[in-house]
Amino acid sequence: MSTVPAGNGWNWVLTGFALFRKSPAMWGFLVLFYIMLMQLLGMIPVFGWFAATVLIPVFSASFMIASRELDQERKLRFDLLFSGFKSNLPALLGQGGLYLASGLTILGLSALVDGGLLLQLMVLGAKPPAAAFEDGSLAGAAMLAGSLYLPVLAAFWFAPALSAWRNLPALQALFYSFFAALSNWRAFCAYGLALVLLSLICSVALFVLALLVRGLLGDKSQNAFVLVMLPVMLIYVPTLFASFYASYRDVFPQDEAAPQAEAGSE
Fold it and tell me: Is residue 118 in a domain?
């Protein structure tokens, strides 16, 4: 584990975009298929949200493997989306279970502020009443949940790759990930600023493209924003996923992948 300079956080986003540029069409296809799969799971009441949450570390490992394939000048393939299922799956599912438990605990604590409205929104998809927006209770619950989520995010940031490539059990991977993220807090602050900048650029691009589409199609384009949102999203999300790999490569250099991870990426 290494402690890297703050400036490396900016490079993680740049590296993520460079990896996206190596295979933009396949990246877009993988991300779109993943989002559709998660949406389909989410349509199943309660259980779907639980299942989708538990599977997050598995798919995180898959996108890590896909990014490494490109980084090592190999071809990006569709089957890599499921390579996490071949890479220390018990540990990844264990992480998923802990991630679900952490999320439910955080949402449960947020209920102290809004009476459980955020919990119902996230798990059941129940729309909060207008009063929750007006009195600020929902915003307060979201702020509390976001604050409590930060240490959880640190623990899970590197954990999928550590289990997939170094064969670490779930708890050990979470332990190393937390302290690796903590010791590199400066780089993560710079990384966060870089993501904010990237989000602003994408927002401006969305606005400009929406205006262009509306100007070209006139009254026929009532949903110009929706029309241009997909291509922008299919640039932003792959760049984000690939930047996760860039951060891991920096903080855990010269990593030797576990045999089963290698088998899953071939």
Answer: yes
